[in-house]
Amino acid sequence: MLDSKLLRTEPEKVAANLKRRGFVLDVAKFQMLEDARKQRQIRVDELRNERNTHAKSVGKAKAQGQDIVPLLKQVEDLGQQLITAEGELNAVQSELEQLIMYLPNLLQDSVPDGADESANIEVRRWGEPIQFPYAPLDHVALGEGLKMLDFASASKISGARFVVLHGELARLQRALTQFMLDLHTREHGYKELYVPYIVNAASLTGTGNLPKFAEDLFALKGEQGFYLIPTAEVPVTNMARDEILEANMLPIKYVAHTPCFRSEAGSAGKDTRGMIRQHQFEKVEVVQLVRPQDSNDAHEQLTSHAEEVLKRLKLPYRTMALCSGDIGFGSSKTYDIEVWLPGQQKYREISSCSNFGAFQARRMQARWRNPETGKPEPLHTLNGSGVAVGRALVAVMENYQQPDGSIVIPDVLRSYMGGLEKIKKV
Fold this sequence. Notes:
With 426 residues, the chain is an alpha+beta fold. It contains twelve helices and 17 strands. It has helices at residues 4-9, 11-19, 27-63, 69-101, 139-145, 151-157, 167-186, 201-207, 233-237, 295-313, 359-364, 389-399; strands spanning 121-126, 149-150, 164-165, 191-193, 198-200, 226-228, 244-246, 252-261, 280-290, 317-321, 333-341, 346-355, 367-370, 375-378, 380-388, 407-408, 422-423. Helix 7 packs across helix 12. The longest helix is centred in the first third of the chain and has 37 residues, at 27-63.
């Protein structure tokens, strides 16, 4: 959520920033609603004061033995007028809040301009893609050749965009997860959390998934208003909802491994082959809650933590600064980390690391007490995949494939695989 004071005082400045995204802020409509809100608020305050004044007069008149019937009638009339005025105020406030909830975050100046992903800028790259002496297979061909990647059973059980992993391939996914959690907790200073996979609407509203992205979510049947999480970002970040944290508690660094559930609305025809885009997948998510003055440095640090996963796995990658037209709704700046996939002969996203500034914190009322002012202020939230487990599995399979279709286990994962050095067809 944007700063309401900034919206009221500098709407044109806000509109110019949002225009970089291709988003048009209807300044005239906003100002019309804001003016109407002010007028109705003034009217409500006037009626409330007038009613209270008349109510006090009733007591005085009664004590003096005067006829209070006319006064009671006035108080009753003012009460009815107040109810009507409050209803009008609530209606305007609701429309204004709805408008604000659909406004994306303001972009940092360092975000490059551009209409789509073609304008994203490469910041750095690590490692060189392996030059295979043969046409490398993609993960689908490799996994099916090993008889350990089973889309047919998943389709029977659930439908399209699901998979069943068998044997050592399932174990390799578990090994990747454990390796990432150990790296982030032991070396990067994150506290591991186990969180619910089902959340309420307030949590999704706090992180910016609702109301705008309702169609991307899996809503559960029933009156509870529950949803399956699209990412661990939702439950983890909402740990701070409605809290005031003391300065000495910051930064807070959390890591969590969860399944993620996404409807993939609007992705028909995209990545229909394999595990790249599924309804259910797993991620190791890193989240930081920091002081506003520390968030840019924290963003660089968090991104480097995700990159370190790929370095340890010896997987070539590049880090991209997303342009204004490709960045997410709630982010002020985002780096995408893209891993090299030999089977596709291209880099594909494996982690997205974002600085949300105070955008999520305002929606969640997540605050810290600034010792300089003594007052609660919105803190800054950041998160990123550290990294997407399924896509890491795909990258390991394709980059470590052998001519006979077997897969060499990366050195850092062998202890998690009981010393196994290679996955071979049984």
